[in-house]
Amino acid sequence: ATLSGGEAQRVKLATQLSSNLVNVTYVLDEPSIGLHQKDMQKLIATLKTLRDLENTVIVVEHDEATMLAADYLIDVGLGAGNLGGEIIACGTPTEIKNNPRSLTGQYLAHQKHIPPVVHNRPGNGEALKIIGASSLIGANFWPAASLNSGSDSET
């Protein structure tokens, strides 16, 4: 069995957090990929804990909650791949939302929206059967420190 990129990054984060390293620069590429929405606040708490331990945390991310929780954003665009590479805007999430050049800011400010999928593909009538798979039900990739930070509620 293998882990997705996001899962592997989260396992490494849990290990790093338990080691209490300081003055480390972490660069994460979309750590929210594959993560259930209810666990996003745990990821954000973990990233903030790393920051609070005097580390630098750089995250490439498209998740709204993660961007809004950031101390500082750098909006790179205008497009993807060869169409991008220009720094469009820099600042706090509020500054990015108020920057008319920032397409990201327009989405964060809810001025632009991604339309929901209106219809799904019809499919071909075939079914997928999974044989011999095991589950990680109950597996917990979050360090205890992030589970209890900032909240007394159960997770």
Q: How many strand units?
A: 4
Q: What percent of residues adopt helix (DSSP H or I)?
A: 25-40%
Strand content: 5-15%
Counted by DSSP, the helix tally is 6
Distance between the termini: 27 Å
Mean pLDDT: 83
Any descriptors?
155 residues; alpha+beta; two-stranded parallel sheet; two-stranded antiparallel sheet; 4 strands; 32% helix; flat; disordered C terminus
Polypeptide structure, described:
By secondary structure, the protein is α+β, with helices and mostly antiparallel strands. Helices cover 32% and strands 14% of the residues. It has six helices and four strands. The protein has helices spanning 5-19, 40-52, 64-69, 93-97, 103-108, 144-148; strands at 25-29, 56-60, 73-77, 86-91. Strands 1-2 form a two-stranded parallel ribbon. Helix 2 (40-52) links the parallel strand 1 (25-29) and strand 2. Helix 1 (5-19) crosses helix 2. The radius of gyration is 19 Å and the shape is flat. The chain starts with a helix and ends in a 7-residue tail after the last helix. Residues 144-155 have low confidence and may be disordered.
Strand-helix topology:
Layout lengths: L4 H15 L5 E5 L10 H13 L3 E5 L3 H6 L3 E5 L8 E6 L1 H5 L5 H6 L35 H5 L7
Parallel strand pairs: 1-2
Antiparallel strand pairs: 3-4
Helix pairs in contact: 1-2
Gist of the model:
By secondary structure, the chain is of the alpha+beta class.
